[in-house]
Design a protein that fits this description.
elongated; Umud Fragment, subunit A; 11 strands; four-stranded antiparallel sheet; 39% strand; 1 helix; seven-stranded antiparallel sheet; alpha+beta
Length: 151
Amino acid sequence: MNTILKFLLRIFFIGIIVFLFNKFFFQICIVQGDSMQPTLKNMNIVLVKKINVNLHQNDIVLIKKNNKIIIKRIVGTPNDKIFLDNYIYINDIKFDNIYTPNGNIEKTNFYLKSDEYFVLGDNRENSIDSRFNEIGIIKQNEIIGKVLFKK
């Protein structure tokens, strides 16, 4: 009986450590959907760093927005000016590698505040992201963490 109790206590403490690790430091997440293809595919597993994260343009982040968890790429960082047509202009510089077919979205300017980010899915034609009201501009406190790697 004493051996079983010790085993159960070990399992309990390991469970608490895993819970705390997942809650505060890192999180494992499964990608759902195709909005980040070809970089991330549906059902890819990613490791997300949640503490001491420095966010930069081109980072892939895990976001909690409107009670949904989404994964997107940071394109605009705090205090950037974003202009969107079929391409994206950041602080008046055109990024030829960031094509954004945006359907019926009007040409738009976004002025990011000191705690705001503009995010896009890599699969621009199949992504609901900062171009759309459903997601919009992302606040710093909506970012859960930065994707470190995928499997």
